[in-house]
Specification:
Strands 1-2-4-3-5-6-7-8 form an eight-stranded mixed beta sheet, sandwiched between helices. It is α/β, with parallel strands linked by helices. About 45% of the residues lie in helices and about 15% in strands.
Length: about 300
């Protein structure tokens, strides 16, 4: 019995130790790279974010989710800009080509301060902030901290106050622990499998474009993305700090009916608590609406920006 137990332990140890060693010796193809950005924008003391900047006119700032990059908005950015809008889609601090999160603060508030820093650095006023998923939480917090430069919010599949019992952050810390994710990063096929599985859940029954998984892999190949993703997941909150009730500005809430990451109830809670909001539910829509329904998103956002 002891010999059998010893054999099992040795096999498990080999499964843990040998794959990273193999891929260190035989690393395979170089990881893909994210497209180059247009500009780097100061958002804090010595901290810059990488941004895609298009068009002229009324400012629209696009805030991606967790994980993600400004390039996730590629379809929306290219369609919005010709409509007389000044569009900025940036890599949040710690993702893509942006600088690392230096102080270990991976909170939503830290991201909100970065967003406010971007608005100030660019001299933007009456900006429309479009937040997707975690980016929606960032937008809500930024508007609550300082609404002076924000004219309106668009929240797409946004995190927000969970109407029932919110997910326990301890679950994120357990599943996405640093040792486990370090092993996954050291074994590229496992990392790609995890990214593909997460993406399949996010897209649901909708088609995933060919560029999505290579771009996601490129983001995770960036030096700070995995640490930021783990830190934000562990620090994630769905509580009252995301309540839009104190905000006296127009809010457009857009939600996919079949969103498997953020349930419809969260969008309904945001809409119900906000003072001035509209709720648009896309039948059969997933969590990836800016990719799967980019044309409809652009029309709604452009109309919302021009509304009086």
């Amino acid at each position: 019995m002891r010999r059998l137990l010893g054999t099992v332990v040795l096999l498990l140890a080999a499964l843990v130790v040998l794959p990273p060693l193999f891929f260190r010796v035989f690393p395979g193809d170089a990881p893909p790279q994210l497209p180059a950005a247009d500009r780097r924008i100061l958002v804090g003391e010595g901290v810059f974010v990488s941004a895609v900047v298009r068009g002229r006119g009324k400012p629209v700032v696009l805030v991606h989710g967790l994980p993600g990059s400004g390039h996730d908005w590629r379809a929306v950015t290219e369609i919005l800009a010709p409509l007389g809008l000044h569009v900025i889609a940036y890599d949040r601090v710690g993702y893509g080509r942006s600088d690392a999160r230096r102080n270990g603060d991976f909170s939503i508030d830290a991201n909100a301060r970065d967003l406010l820093g971007l608005l100030e650095s660019e001299g933007l006023a009456d900006a429309t902030v479009v937040g997707w998923s975690y980016g929606g939480a960032t937008a809500i917090r930024a508007a609550r901290l300082d609404p002076s430069r924000i004219g309106r919010l668009v929240l797409i599949g946004s995190a927000g106050p969970w109407p029932d019992r919110p997910p326990d952050p301890a679950i994120y810390r357990l599943i996405f622990s640093v040792p486990a994710m370090a092993w996954v990063r050291a074994v590229p096929p496992m990392g790609r499998a995890l990214q593909a599985g997460f993406s399949a859940e996010a897209f649901g029954d909708e088609a995933m474009p060919d560029w999505w998984l290579p771009q996601l892999a490129a983001n995770f190949a960036s030096p700070h993305t995995q640490e930021t993703w783990l830190g934000e997941g562990a620090a994630m909150s769905w509580g009252e700090e995301l309540d839009p009730a104190p905000l006296d500005l127009p809010i457009l809430v857009i939600q996919g009916e079949d969103d498997r990451l953020v349930p419809l109830e969260v969008a309904e809670a945001i809409h119900g608590r906000a003072r001035r909001s509209q709720l648009w539910v896309i039948e059969g829509g997933s969590h990836m609406l800016p990719i799967t329904h980019s044309d409809e998103i652009v029309k709604r956002v452009a109309s919302f920006v021009d509304a009086r």
